[in-house]
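Reopening this one. Same input as before:
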Amino acid sequence: MTQTLESLSSRLSNGADRFLPWDRRVSLATVLARAGKVDLAREQVSRCLAELSERKLRSLSTGSLYNLQVLSHSFGLVATDPQLRKLALDLLPRDLRSSL
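Same output, byte for byte:
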């Protein structure tokens, strides 16, 4: 696992993620955060929020949407569009929404 994370970190620093689909970027941020690569995860979440749209939010699974919300809150990052922030919360089931 360590070797894979080192390889991934190296590839990210070389811009290998520039064409990564948005939903995969959300998943990458989650993996990086769970692996303790906080700075890399924060960067991916920031990019996700910068590229946020209604279509992209609706394309995520409930788990991915929740993970994006948890990570953005833990990093102190927010989407700039208040309507998209509201939609992101509204798309979550009540029990997950209340845990944020």
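So the earlier flakiness isn't reproducible anymore. For the record, The first helix runs from residue 2 to 13.
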